[in-house]
Amino acid sequence: MSRWWRGRGRLPRGEGPWAWLAAGSVALSVLLLVLLLGLLAVRGLGHFWPADVDRVTLSDGRVLAGRAVKEAPLPGDAGRERLYRTDNRDLDGALWDWVPVDAIERVDHPDDLVVLERRRWGAFVGRLVAWLPEEGERLEGEAAWSALRARLARLERQREAIDRLREQTLLPLVRRLEHDAAGSTAALEAVRARLRALRAEMAGDRLLLESVDGRRLIQPVEAVLRAARPNAMGVGGKLVAWAEGVWRFLSEGPRAANTAGGVWPAIFGTILLVMLMSLLVTPFGVLAAVYLNEVAHQGRLTRLVRIGVRNLAGVPSIVYGVFGLGVFVYGLGGRLDAWFFEDALPSPTFGTGGLLWASLTLALLTLPVVIVATEEGLARIPDRQREGALALGATRLEMLTRVVLPMATPAMLTGVILAVARAAGEVAPLMLVGVAKLAPQVPVDGDFPFLHLERKFMHLGYHIFDAAFHGGDVQAAMPLIYATALLLVLVILVLNLTAIFLRHHLRSRHGTLSQH
What we know:
The chain crosses the membrane at residues 20-42, 263-292, 312-333, 353-374, 403-424, 480-502. The chain is an alpha+beta fold. Helix content is 57%, strand content 13%. The protein has helices at residues 2-5, 17-45, 89-92, 142-179, 186-202, 235-251, 264-295, 300-312, 317-340, 355-379, 383-391, 396-425, 430-433, 460-469, 474-510, and strands at residues 54-58, 63-73, 80-85, 96-100, 104-108, 113-118, 124-132, 139-140, 206-210, 216-220, 224-228, 254-255, 260-261. Strands 6, 7, 8, 9, 10 and 11 form a six-stranded antiparallel sheet that branches. The chain has a five-stranded antiparallel sheet with strand order 4-3-2-1-5, with no helix packed on it.
């Protein structure tokens, strides 16, 4: 055992206990990462599983229906209580109900219980009593359920048509009229009339619903998004419903104050922000590192600059946000509005937070990371590589571009990807320079110039922050917070893994520097 502890077994000779400590630290880090991903996956992805709905009968005769969420002990060793999500906010005024476990007489799972996801008032849990069409006979039982499913499929197609008409035709017309006040409004009125006609086609049919305790209400079908009978679904049906729920989360926009819906605008905004930031930070970071290591005289001033760059990497991100707000938004943005968008004042165009200023702010934030990583890669290149290129007749520029930079590409790529990973998770500076709580329209469309740098955008990190601390019902938003956090962690993890694989590929192509 002492041979292993002293590093004389399989571990490198002479390293003593430090090799064990390093291996243990790596194992602990991997374990913590797996636990974090497991927690986020269970809490986040489990939200989309159509869990069975309990019908609970209490000892006092009260009946409720809902999905059990968690249990907690009552004060003073008085037993335990269980939290049910009962929905039906329009009937009960709340989504949650704490029930003492000792007061529960019976729990069963009737197959006819339906869960309706609605635009307003959240979900409804209860029974579908009857289908009340605008024209025709009233339907009950399975006939009503079949009519509802068929009508919801048609409503989904109609909503998609309305969304396409609004995004591809109405919004470009409105923006065009904003810049050309003398333009004709006939086309705009025609589009609005078409939208009103489509909405009128959706209205009319109604549902007669009943809660498990006998209260009834009339529900317009047009306000129902989806309907399901979880208790009557098999495992296969639940897997399909779970996959559809995950896809809607990834492809739809948020609603109900970020407590429902998806995160597609936040995904798009995060990726677009990171791409723009990378395009801005990469050339400046690489050029600065090349100048400091290959061109500048290695004296006291250069050493002071290096110290300053490394210190900038430790500046809190909120400081960069304040700098971006003062210099980019109010300074440059205000100047651009005064020079090019005077007709739009006092409404700011570039003089307010937007995608461009957020990208520049994050580029400044991550610039030290790129400079330091690139300069370290340049410093590891042996001098004989440079001297050999110069001895063969290459100019200094050819030596830099054809010998030094290709060999330093893995280090440059590592710096850029680390910068991307950090920028993807930043929230504090974005709160000041352009991120929005709700921006369902992504800043890319078919209207010239196609990429609108002045618009606000959504971000995954800020979406998590807003839903967790500014939502009206944090308990309802918590599963979506876990799912969004899992998505953000996976994005950062993929970026880091990409850096490792690309670095390995480039090292194998240009030679391993450690061999020299």
